Amino acid sequence: MVIDIQNLSKIYTRKKKPPVVANDNLSLALEEGEILGLLGHNGAGKTTLVNQILGLTKPTNGDIMVMGESVMSDPKRARQLCSVQPQSQVPLSFLTPEQAVLTMGKMRGGKEKDIKNRMKNLFQSLDIEEWAKTEGEKLSGGIQRLTAFCMAIVNPGKIVILDEPTNDIDAVRRRYLWEEIRQLTQKGSSVILVTHNVLEAEKAVDRVAILHQGKLLAKGKPSEIKQTVNRQLRMEINLAMEPENINLPSWILSHHMDKERLTLSLEQSSVPIAIEWAQSNIVEGKINDYSLSPSSLEDVYVKLTGGRSIEEPNKLVSGGLSL
Ligand SMILES: Nc1ncnc2c1ncn2[C@@H]1O[C@H](COP(=O)(O)OP(=O)(O)OP(=O)(O)O)[C@@H](O)[C@H]1O
Fold first, then answer.
1. Looking at the domain assignment, is residue 188 inside a domain?
2. How far is the CA of 83 from the centre of ligand 1 (A)?
3. pTM here?
4. 133, 96 in Cβ contact below 8 A?
5. Final residue belonging to a domain, choices 193, 210, 226
6. What is the number of the ligand 1 atom nearest to the C-alpha of 211?
7. Helices and strands (H, E) in the chain, number of each type
8. Which SUPFAM superfamilies does the protein's record reference (predicted)?
9. pLDDT tens for the chain, residues 1 to 323
10. CB 23 within 8 A of CB 214
11. For residues 176 and 126, what is the distance between their CA atoms, to the nearest angstrom?
12. Closest ligand 1 atom to the C-alpha of 164?
């Protein structure tokens, strides 16, 4: 076990305001060579957890063992063992990606020649070579984030923590990035991946932990977690008009909206009636098309977190289509 978190709580006290329970009695492990996805809405407590692992925030209760030693007793050691890509953009200013990545690799104690080779390979794999010598402030958000990713993994520690690494990144380079993350585990690192993107995480991680309002709602392999809804199906619908024009029938278990996409969950036994309902809405011009598929990790997430879509945490996703 690389990280062992036991009964961890963090309560922030605030002047003239009620305290915030950011982490509520969490017990969780990171196993050697795995990618653990940490999923949760804004404010779920993910950053607080990461900061405690790194010894930057002191737990209110509980402890975290990193490679067998308590972070509380040796916070610096945890930081030495972990390579981190923060959620916020790393301010590169006048530094080029080449300078920033090389500097970070050397700071982590690597030989210049090895770091340069690895950097070259990374820039090639992520297809960002053409910006290697461009000053940071002239780079797009996506290339800046990919540079921060390279800084974190050019000379990786035993533990790599990546906070929303795919934000702002195009679909093709996302794929390259996932390949690099997978290769990290093959070279002996274990990875914590903090993300909002459940669909992406489902494909890329070995296990997930779902955090909501400081509590750990579920942990395990995506396939195990999905078993809680494995007799359900999802119907994805492209709406042709505003959602308030659609009457939701009673066989729907839950639903959520994402732009013009309405997603419904339903029991297998409701499939015939659901198809009939969708077809009649097509005839009436209310929906463009629909598809039926097995439930995904996103459906479990929505169910566990009380019907709020992870992509749009402030939108109500049950009880009518008043969006
Ligand atoms: N220093 C602090 N003082 C008081 N409250 C805080 C502090 N840091 C975080 N919080 C609160 O703790 C809760 C968890 O915040 P945290 O940043 O850990 O969530 P998160 O899951 O990382 O969110 P996001 O995805 O938006 O980054 C939130 O309610 C937040 O407002």
1. yes
2. 21
3. 0.81
4. yes
5. 226
6. 21
7. 10, 14
8. P-loop containing nucleoside triphosphate hydrolases
9. 999 999 999 999 988 889 999 999 999 999 999 999 999 888 899 999 999 999 999 999 999 999 999 998 888 888 888 999 988 777 777 889 999 999 989 988 878 899 999 999 999 999 999 999 998 889 899 999 999 999 999 999 999 999 999 888 998 999 999 999 999 999 899 999 998 778 778 888 999 999 999 999 989 998 888 877 667 888 999 999 888 888 888 999 888 887 778 988 898 899 999 999 999 999 999 999 999 988 778 878 877 876 544 443 333 232 233 23
10. yes
11. 6
12. 25
